[in-house]
Amino acid sequence: MNTIDHKSITYQTTMLENNQLVNYVQQGAGAPVILTHGLAASLHDWDDLLPELANSGYAGYALDLLGHSESEKPAHRRHYSVDGVFEHFSRWIDSLGLREPLILIGHSLGGGLSLLYTLRHPERVRALVLVNPFYDIKQLPPLMQSVIRHNLINTDLIERTPYTLFRLLVDVGSFSGSFGLRENHVMPEHIRYQTALDYKRASSGIYNIPNSLQNLTTDLLRLHQPTLLLWGGRDQTLTPSSFPQLAEVLPNLKGTHTFPACGHVPHQCHPEKFNPHVMEFLRGL
């Protein structure tokens, strides 16, 4: 197995023009790849993929989105919208000073932001990898749709929730399986630890972000970038049937793959199976 010198990993923070802090990691040199995590996650979502990208001649960049982990956490909930998070994300990309067209890899909310960025700056995007992407509020379960259509005003309970409770919820939800195929999977300990920590460190205001997402389906007909679509077949956060529906809309779809035993995070569920699909797609560009 190829190895990567982990000393080449650079953790950085930068202050944007609007005085918002961005925490991010950079690894490798070559064609730029931007990796964007989902709601209540962090740049550590990509700990398994970043070294492979670096080892294959790419420069990987992964950030903590607004309100997440070590990045800026505005106090007022008005900042927590798709537009607010997108502005933070877009300004960070500008701050990197990258001249080559970008390869965008996004999971869930990060997939939606990657689609938005491509729609607004098509000339700056070379290709897309979408992982369980969030592109329409109707992908959420009906009860969750009802909850998030209203701004969460009192979030004290979320902020006071101890790590141990987050960890219990993560452990209970970490099992996923495809019983018809007699295949199941439990998330590794280090991923469950990180997931619970990310929930605990995130600002409670982030849970207001999804209700401001507009349906992107019609706009996606304007995309021309080569796209790879990957998803977990047992996603309990976003309706799995929404991903084949998306595949029918994307104009330049180069491939799809379902991970039957994985839920919402196939890139963490089975990185040894997930990463080869990404690398094969990148080699074909």
Structural commentary:
The chain is α/β, with parallel strands linked by helices. The protein starts with 9 loop residues before the first strand and ends with a helix. The radius of gyration is 18 Å and the shape is globular. The strands form two sheets. An eight-stranded mixed beta sheet has the order 1-2-4-3-5-6-9-10, sandwiched between helices. Strands 7-8 form a two-stranded antiparallel ribbon. β1 (10-15) and β2 form a beta hairpin. 33% of the residues lie in helices and 21% in strands. The chain has a single domain (6-283), classed as Alpha/Beta hydrolase fold, catalytic domain (Rossmann fold, 3-Layer(aba) Sandwich), CATH 3.40.50. The chain has helices at residues 49-55, 82-96, 109-120, 142-148, 156-160, 163-173, 189-201, 242-249, 266-269, 271-283, and strands at residues 10-15, 21-27, 31-36, 58-63, 102-107, 125-131, 175-178, 183-186, 227-232, 253-259. Residues 1-7 and 177-182 have low confidence and may be disordered. It is built from ten helices and ten strands.
**Architecture, CATH level 2?**
3-Layer(aba) Sandwich
Under CATH, the topology can be stated as: Rossmann fold
Main sheet strand line-up:
1-2-4-3-5-6-9-10
Taken in chain order, the helices and strands follow as: EEEHEHEHEHHHEEHEHEHH
CATH class: Alpha Beta
List keywords for this structure.
about 280 residues; Rossmann fold; disordered N terminus; 10 helices; 10 strands; alpha/beta
